[in-house]
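The data are quoted verbatim here:
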Amino acid sequence: MCASGKLSCTAYRMSDGDDRRIYDNIIMPAVLLDISMDGMRIKTSVALEERYLMEYKSVYQVSRVALVRWVKKIGDDYHAGLLCM
């Protein structure tokens, strides 16, 4: 379903090993493009990677967590598909 709105996001990249340390902590704005029962598609100027964990806040300032499933560069921006948890 088409949707729109601004999100405040923090991206976390977990370590690849068993130690579960967080290596990156990137704070960024994003624009909500689509939303479904399981996830959403966002647009941002930050180059994300698959498997980043995203903490995001909507207009209502409620924090939620999602997993980046795919990223595609379109023009100067990046579109990312998030699986909501």
Notes: The domain at 2-84 is CATH 2.40.10.220 (Thrombin, subunit H).
